[in-house]
Amino acid sequence: MRLSPREMSSNDLRRVAVVAFTVLISGAACTGDWPDPPPVDAGEFAAAHEEWRSNREARMVTPPGGAVLWMGLFPLAQGEVQMGSDPDLTIVLPEEDAPALVGTLTLTGQEVTFAPAPGSPLALQDGPVITESTVLENDRSGNTTYITLGSLGMRIHAEPGTDRLWLRVWDTDLPLRETFELPEYYPVDTEWRVAARLELYPELRGVPLADVTGGMIEQNALGELVFERDGREHTLIAVGTEESSSYFIMMWDSTATTETYQAGRYLRVEKVDEEGWTTIDFNRSYNAPCVFTAFSVCALPPRENWLDLPVTAGEKRPDKPAYEGVADRGPSGEG
Question: Tens digit of pLDDT for each residue in 288-300?
């Protein structure tokens, strides 16, 4: 028997109200309602963005990570290879910094040693000249060996998920160091801050990635960041671990066909909170090092991170990219 509202007790009415409210909330959740990111003051947000951009510009010309200063990337094969300013050597360095023969690099398995030529001026950074065979730890060892030769700096470069090693060389005297400017950005817009939830994989997943040298590397991802834009859900694979303070994102969006770099952009996203949420700020999308130097091993966005929307935020492409070939390796050309 169905009771009319007049025949219901006050307790019955309260129970009905609770059930109705629960159904209403559940229905809203099922329709995909999305939380807003934490509010920010527009002025403070714009100022923080300018500070971030200024710091990024300074890092681009600061050794050893400043890609603008990189002037050499030499692949190392098993065995010996000599370096110096002699043009007949495999690794040729500028003669204003290097003698004809600086020394010999030997790759054995994953260990690289340097044996100096007589009188070689190559030295450990902030240390003595190298006078005997010395192991050079690569930049993913946790104990990178930095070496110097005149205005040149060098280190052994490694990439995750691969056994390939390179000698990376940079020059602190490059004139571009004094004149470099980042390319244009889209106007800062708080609407490009979006809430995202992290959907964890059952375990860390190795994501194979093509790189601009034509090779493959592999990064570990802990899950996917899910966000809503224009009434639809989108996902981005998040590189990192549960211990990471931020996640690394490689993405491609449709602005790459017109205004941003053809092969995609990078982005850092803060670690999620205890409830599994974070904020993606697309205003901080930035160009990979290969946009500014031909001497890089940049990973390209995986197909899962090709967004079906134009992200009109962040860094645009420069007038003339340093590594033209990478433009042919995005969705418009597999490469």
Answer: 999 999 999 999 9
